[in-house]
């Protein structure tokens, strides 16, 4: 910030020394790996993949067990109900989890921006105080 000759002009984000203090993990879903993962993607980088699969598998097991203990009349057997519940639960949980994940990341970024703005404001105050002291010393 001391590179600026005019302290009233805010510093751009590209040149801001405080902006890179907090790094969020890179969550690029399209990042390809060499032959490992799901469709050549690293599963650990895909947000909400693991919880949606776990909830889907858990619901499929529960529904399969319940329908095998209490059989229903009709064309569908208990594994069919399990597969249907897996598809519904995992497919329904994915967008809910992604929405919550995006909202949380947005709040984190807003908080980080507010912290950077506060740090810049304090640094601007320090520069103004230093300029005032120099002016008083020169008088």
Task: Tell me the Rg in angstroms.
Answer: 27 Å
Low-confidence stretches: 1-9
Largest sheet data: none
Total of DSSP H or I helical runs spanning 4+ residues: 2
Subcellular location: Mitochondrion inner membrane
Transmembrane segments: 53-72, 79-96
Keywords: Coiled coil, Membrane, Mitochondrion, Mitochondrion inner membrane, Transmembrane, Transmembrane helix
GO cellular component, one term: mitochondrion
Task: Describe the protein.
With 139 residues, the protein is mostly helical. The protein contains 2 helices and no strands. It has a domain at 43-138. Residues 1-9 have low confidence and may be disordered. Keywords: Coiled coil, Membrane, Mitochondrion, Mitochondrion inner membrane, Transmembrane, Transmembrane helix.
Write the layout of secondary structure elements.
Layout lengths: L48 H21 L8 H61 L1
Helix pairs in contact: 1-2
Give a quick precis of the structure:
59% of the residues lie in helices and 0% in strands.
List its traits.
139 residues, mainly alpha, 0% strand, rod-shaped, disordered N terminus
């Amino acid at each position: 910030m001391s590179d600026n000759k005019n302290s009233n002009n805010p510093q751009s984000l590209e040149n801001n020394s405080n902006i890179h203090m907090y790094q969020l993990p890179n969550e690029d879903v399209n990042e390809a790996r060499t032959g490992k993962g799901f469709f050549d993607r690293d599963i650990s980088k895909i947000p909400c993949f693991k919880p949606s699969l776990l909830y889907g598998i858990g619901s499929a097991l529960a529904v399969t067990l319940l329908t095998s203990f209490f059989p229903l009349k009709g064309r569908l057997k208990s594994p069919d109900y399990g597969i249907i519940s897996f598809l519904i639960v995992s497919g329904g949980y994915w967008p809910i989890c992604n929405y919550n994940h995006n909202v949380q990341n947005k709040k984190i970024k807003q908080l980080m921006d507010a912290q950077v703005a506060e740090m810049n404001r304090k640094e601007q105050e320090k520069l103004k105080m230093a300029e005032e002291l120099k002016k008083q010393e020169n008088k």
